[in-house]
Amino acid sequence: MDLTILGYQLGEVIGEGTYSVVKKAFSPKLGKSVAIKVIDKSKLSKTYINKFLKREIKTLTRCYHPNIVKVHEIFASQDTLLIVMEEAKLDLYELINSKHHLSERVARQIFKQITEALKYCHDLGIAHRDLKCENILLITENCPKLSDFGFACSDDCSSSTFCGSPAYAAPEILNGEVYNPFKADIWSLGVILYLMVTGCMPFNDNDLSKLVKLQAQALKFPPTPCLTACCQNLIIKMIKKDPAERSSINNILAHPWFQCAEQGA
């Protein structure tokens, strides 16, 4: 598919996946740079195209929120799908890695926006199912955008599929159980906040059986940076082994930690 004919001046590759590449481009029509996700459908199974890819497009075109990546246009041919979206400077993982960890003050500002975007999705009956720092793009350093809805599902879908990255996945997913995808999103959200404020993962092992055992243990925080008790409490409420005990998305946003900005934590 010729992007020039479609009105885009193609730039360099800024990201790569198994079945896609993301290229920078300039849109004279929009008057700014954009990111174009180029998906090679010839490498995908019919099941993936009809289930996950169709679901991603449906979700992206349905969601309009300041903290969800904006899609400008979608073009499709027999072998290629192009998703034109707003350009990001970096992802959340890259930001954390560059600073080793984020202060609670900075993390609070970013995390609240992430949580509000997830609440918007959940209110629409959409679970993300692949929440991780790499799937949170930053248009500016303090403006996060949820992206990559390839594993998203609606509230009427079966949730027994293993989705997401193991280090962010809830115990019920790793154990192969039928799970509530909205509660699984809350666990992943807790892992994201933990990584933001500590610079490390709460549970991390390449061996899935060891990872499951780590998740069964009491959550521990590193000695440095020294987190406030309020921040630790919020993380603990999200990272509960029993899904029924995890905080709801509304209770997360109502947590006292979000009212601590004046304390400079």
TrEMBL record:
<dbReference type="GO" id="GO:0050321">
    <property type="term" value="F:tau-protein kinase activity"/>
</dbReference>
<dbReference type="InterPro" id="IPR017441">
    <property type="entry name" value="Protein_kinase_ATP_BS"/>
</dbReference>
<keyword id="KW-0460">Magnesium</keyword>
<keyword id="KW-0221">Differentiation</keyword>
<dbReference type="InterPro" id="IPR008271">
    <property type="entry name" value="Ser/Thr_kinase_AS"/>
</dbReference>
<feature type="binding site">
    <location>
        <position position="37"/>
    </location>
    <ligand>
        <name>ATP</name>
    </ligand>
</feature>
<dbReference type="InterPro" id="IPR011009">
    <property type="entry name" value="Kinase-like_dom_sf"/>
</dbReference>
<comment type="similarity">
    <text>Belongs to the protein kinase superfamily. CAMK Ser/Thr protein kinase family.</text>
</comment>
<keyword id="KW-0723">Serine/threonine-protein kinase</keyword>
<dbReference type="GO" id="GO:0000287">
    <property type="term" value="F:magnesium ion binding"/>
</dbReference>
<dbReference type="GO" id="GO:0007283">
    <property type="term" value="P:spermatogenesis"/>
</dbReference>
<keyword id="KW-0744">Spermatogenesis</keyword>
<keyword id="KW-0067">ATP-binding</keyword>
<dbReference type="GO" id="GO:0030154">
    <property type="term" value="P:cell differentiation"/>
</dbReference>
<keyword id="KW-0832">Ubl conjugation</keyword>
<dbReference type="GO" id="GO:0000226">
    <property type="term" value="P:microtubule cytoskeleton organization"/>
</dbReference>
<dbReference type="GO" id="GO:0035556">
    <property type="term" value="P:intracellular signal transduction"/>
</dbReference>
<keyword id="KW-0418">Kinase</keyword>
<dbReference type="GO" id="GO:0005737">
    <property type="term" value="C:cytoplasm"/>
</dbReference>
<dbReference type="Pfam" id="PF00069">
    <property type="entry name" value="Pkinase"/>
</dbReference>
<keyword id="KW-0597">Phosphoprotein</keyword>
<keyword id="KW-0217">Developmental protein</keyword>
<dbReference type="GO" id="GO:0005524">
    <property type="term" value="F:ATP binding"/>
</dbReference>
<keyword id="KW-0479">Metal-binding</keyword>
<keyword id="KW-0808">Transferase</keyword>
<protein>
    <recommendedName>
        <fullName>non-specific serine/threonine protein kinase</fullName>
        <ecNumber>2.7.11.1</ecNumber>
    </recommendedName>
</protein>
<keyword id="KW-0547">Nucleotide-binding</keyword>
<feature type="domain" description="Protein kinase">
    <location>
        <begin position="8"/>
        <end position="258"/>
    </location>
</feature>
<dbReference type="InterPro" id="IPR000719">
    <property type="entry name" value="Prot_kinase_dom"/>
</dbReference>
